Q: What sequence folds into this?
């Protein structure tokens, strides 16, 4: 196996970051408020990166990512809180449940061809809303007031490890033959199909992989914040992730990470500016699409040039 | 969605009698008229530039606010308020197209869709910021009253009657414009084949503007009538009806004007039935269930023919 | 042996016949031309053969098997690849990726392998890259492999599209006006290249061309379409002297 210097460098940097933050947190140098935001930042990285798989790499507009997060959060929280099951099976089940819901929603949409792609935006938006309505009406998980008393199983090492794993797995997927099939659909559906790409299969694959990771983020979220309610995962939450993916660059994983981090920090510093924040976000969406449709990073990945591998033939 | 409650509320009794059934149909058709008017704008814009104009629901909301201020601040009556709202929305629709969508004519589909979502959120939250998020009570400008129907215990209110009449007049006017005027012919030509239409000397940019103007004016009219009907408006009132009207347009066959009208009416009636006989909490979910069902069984909608893609 | 056989193929677009009663066959190893004036239905015929459109009626048999109603990707996997009249490359991907995507159907490693980069992933990826570069070498584009397809000059985009189609390892290659927009020198080079790959890969080729003189030189048999109807077929000599063909082409110019 050849050694990828860039990857080694990135991973070393990541682990350095891990230990620094771990040190700061365990010695209470970081206040509880900032600690909370650091957790949120990593959960947002999982959300933005996985959303980018659909919006950036597949090129279809997905507006209900928070809905899948809700599925993961509720399924896992019900397992640990109501059934007293351990964390690991809850995380796995929650993520898989979100992935399966992704398959069920995606199948009728992607099966119906190009028209279906156009309707994905509306269908996912509606899906987010349906999930909310279902949880509001499900007394077993607390109805409208939400589910509380969820054990705090998510700790810093688990969160960090799973975030890094998510990013690596999505990167690996994109850089494989299956990932290239997904990219070709974004580029030209008709050409892709005549080159042997099964459109329905790969659209569905990208969509449900994204749903799976959103579910994972949901499980981590629920087991950090004690309480979840249907309104935690509303449409505006999905918009947050959309803005992160768009700002970072549709089709750039590092872009998603940078944008997710940046926007989480900005929101933490400027805590409550409600309507104005949404005005700013909406303007970001429009202005980026008009003046720099590729986002900050475009489809490029952040690399340090001195680490670039020399191509070996 | 606070507005969802405002949007309904009336006639939620349960029962199986004919009276109640007829009543639900009437309520459904009033609601359906609103959906139909909004759906027409969606379908016209989609037909001409293949864009789901997410901001369309917000144009309807702004229409309601224009109507509100025309009545409260300017002391106008229903008809002048309706006309002012329609003109205001037409201008707003054209402005949105010129500023946000036109620069993206050659961009990817997803870029335009994201812009549309951005414009939609922008209109919602600038309204929240400047006009406060709280609902406003729409003044009563039509006298209360109702007619009894066929001797049954079902009624049609003056407001409902107004909605029917205005909707039908507007739809007839729209059909006249689309089928019997030069602009209408040009609109159909651009929708059929934009490049060919340009070669034939049609100013496609103007036609697209006019399409946005007409669609937005219809949404504006719907906004004012909703204000009159449900007597409260708020900055987020456009989200749900906007989405449902889109589903209505898909149901009828997107890009097809009679389809949007029929789809809107069907949506309204189905919703009234669900909240009348079933659980009104699931009323909002029904629209999306319908969308999924259409996609499985007839993706081109009730009136749609499978279209040819140029390869 | 007939590799592709079409009988009474009809395609209506809202009552208008884009292709009507089209009969056609191509033998293993042949190079056949499909010509006709603008709007004759040539590209529609291609779209029907490759599954982009579904025929209104008629039969299409590929390798003795009906392919009517099959999706384009299935037909591709059975051994058919094509290019497009108005170049459809994956524009924002590199030249190398464009070719690698065509290999997709031949790659066997699973999605699991791609997530976890198993041994199978590394071995097959290495192989695919090697083969893709070999193809690019044939087209003298291996030095451009890391460039985005959109940045290539027009002539090279056309060549890349052929390289991509070829990388899918088809038995039958359909080329839709491959020389469109090229100058005479480029066209000449391209025709030589087509002759070369045909021999090298033992291909059967169906070629659409607008320019009759070009096809005369390279094709063994020619079919002529006009207004969706087959008006002639035969050897270049037979076509050259056919009054119907002359009329169809002259009619266009007048």
A:
């Amino acid at each position: 196996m050849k050694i990828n210097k860039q990857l080694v460098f990135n991973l070393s940097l990541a682990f350095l970051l891990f230990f620094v933050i771990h040190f700061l947190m365990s010695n209470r140098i970081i206040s509880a408020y900032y600690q909370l935001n650091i957790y949120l930042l990593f959960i947002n990285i999982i959300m933005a990166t996985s959303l980018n798989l659909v919006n950036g790499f597949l090129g279809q507009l997905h507006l209900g990512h928070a809905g899948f997060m809700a599925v993961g959060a509720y399924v896992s929280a019900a397992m640990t809180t109501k059934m007293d099951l351990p964390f690991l099976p809850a995380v796995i089940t929650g993520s898989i449940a979100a992935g399966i819901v992704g398959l069920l929603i995606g199948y009728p949409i992607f099966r119906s061809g190009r028209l279906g792609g156009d309707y994905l935006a509306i269908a996912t938006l509606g899906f987010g809303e349906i999930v909310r309505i279902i949880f509001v009406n499900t007394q077993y998980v607390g109805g409208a007031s939400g589910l509380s008393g969820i054990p705090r199983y998510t700790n810093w090492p688990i969160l960090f490890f799973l975030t890094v794993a998510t990013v690596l797995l999505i990167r690996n997927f994109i850089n494989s033959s299956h990932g290239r099939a997904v990219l070709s659909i974004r580029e030209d559906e008709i050409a892709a199909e005549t080159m042997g790409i099964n459109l329905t299969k790969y659209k569905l694959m990208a969509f449900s992989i994204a749903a799976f990771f959103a579910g994972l983020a949901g499980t981590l979220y629920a087991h950090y914040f004690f309480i979840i309610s249907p309104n935690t995962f509303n449409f505006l939450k999905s918009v947050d992730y959309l803005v992160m993916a768009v700002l970072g660059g549709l089709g750039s994983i590092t872009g998603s990470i940078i944008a997710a981090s940046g926007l989480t920090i900005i929101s933490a510093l400027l805590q409550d500016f409600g309507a104005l924040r949404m005005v700013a976000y909406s303007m970001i969406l429009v202005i980026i699409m008009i003046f720099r449709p590729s986002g900050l990073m475009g489809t490029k990945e952040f690399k340090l040039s001195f680490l670039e591998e020399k191509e070996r033939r | 969605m606070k507005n969802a409650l405002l949007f309904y509320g009336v006639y939620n009794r349960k029962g199986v009698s004919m009276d109640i059934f007829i009543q639900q149909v009437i309520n459904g058709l009033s609601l359906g008229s609103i959906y139909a008017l909004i759906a027409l704008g969606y379908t016209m814009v989609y037909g001409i530039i293949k864009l789901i104009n997410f901001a369309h629901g917000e144009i309807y909301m702004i229409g309601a606010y224009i109507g509100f201020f025309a009545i409260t601040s300017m002391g106008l009556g229903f008809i002048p308020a309706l006309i002012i709202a329609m003109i205001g929305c037409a201008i707003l629709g054209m402005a949105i197209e010129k500023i946000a969508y036109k620069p993206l004519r050659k961009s990817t589909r997803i870029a335009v869709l994201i812009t549309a979502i951005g414009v939609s959120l922008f209109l919602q939250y600038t309204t929240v910021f400047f006009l406060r998020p709280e609902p406003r009570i729409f003044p009563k400008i039509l006298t209360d009253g109702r007619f009894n129907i066929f001797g049954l215990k079902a009624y049609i209110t003056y407001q409902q009657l107004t909605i029917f009449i205005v909707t039908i007049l507007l739809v007839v006017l729209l059909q006249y414009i689309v089928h019997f005027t030069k602009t209408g012919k040009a609109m159909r030509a651009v929708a059929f084949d934009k490049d060919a239409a340009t070669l034939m000397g049609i100013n496609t940019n103007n036609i697209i503007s006019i399409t946005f103007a007409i669609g937005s004016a219809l949404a504006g009219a719907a906004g004012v009538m909703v204000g009159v009907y449900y007597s409260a408006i708020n900055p987020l009132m456009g989200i749900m009806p906007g989405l449902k009207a889109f589903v209505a347009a898909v149901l009828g066959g997107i890009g097809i004007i009679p389809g949007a009208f029929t789809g809107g009416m069907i949506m309204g009636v189905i919703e009234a039935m669900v909240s009348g006989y079933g659980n009104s909490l699931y009323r909002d979910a029904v629209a999306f269930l319908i969308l999924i069902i259409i996609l499985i069984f007839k993706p081109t909608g009730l009136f749609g023919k499978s279209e040819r893609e140029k390869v | 042996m007939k590799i592709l056989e079409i009988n009474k193929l009809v395609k209506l677009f809202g009552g208008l016949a884009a292709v009507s009663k089209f009969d056609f066959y191509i033998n293993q190893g042949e190079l056949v031309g499909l010509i006709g004036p603008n709007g004759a239905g040539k590209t529609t015929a291609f779209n029907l053969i490759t599954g982009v459109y579904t025929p209104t009626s008629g039969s299409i048999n590929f390798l003795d098997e009906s392919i009517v109603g099959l999706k384009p990707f299935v037909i591709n996997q059975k051994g058919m690849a094509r290019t497009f009249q108005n170049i459809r490359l994956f524009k924002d991907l590199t030249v190398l990726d464009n070719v690698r995507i065509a290999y997709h159907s031949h790659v066997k490693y699973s999605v699991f392998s791609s997530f976890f980069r198993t041994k199978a992933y590394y071995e097959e990826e290495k192989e695919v890259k090697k083969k893709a570069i070999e193809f690019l070498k044939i087209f003298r584009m291996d030095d451009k492999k890391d460039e985005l397809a959109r940045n290539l000059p027009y002539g090279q985009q056309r060549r890349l599209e052929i390289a991509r189609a070829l990388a899918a390892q088809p038995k039958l290659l359909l080329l839709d006006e491959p020389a469109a927009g090229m100058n005479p020198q480029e066209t000449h080079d391209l025709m030589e290249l087509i002759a070369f790959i045909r021999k090298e890969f033992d291909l059967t080729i169906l070629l659409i061309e607008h320019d009759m003189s070009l096809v005369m030189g390279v094709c063994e048999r020619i079919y002529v379409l006009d207004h969706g109807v087959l008006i002639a077929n035969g050897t270049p000599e037979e076509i050259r002297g056919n009054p119907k063909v002359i009329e169809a082409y002259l009619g266009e110019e007048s």
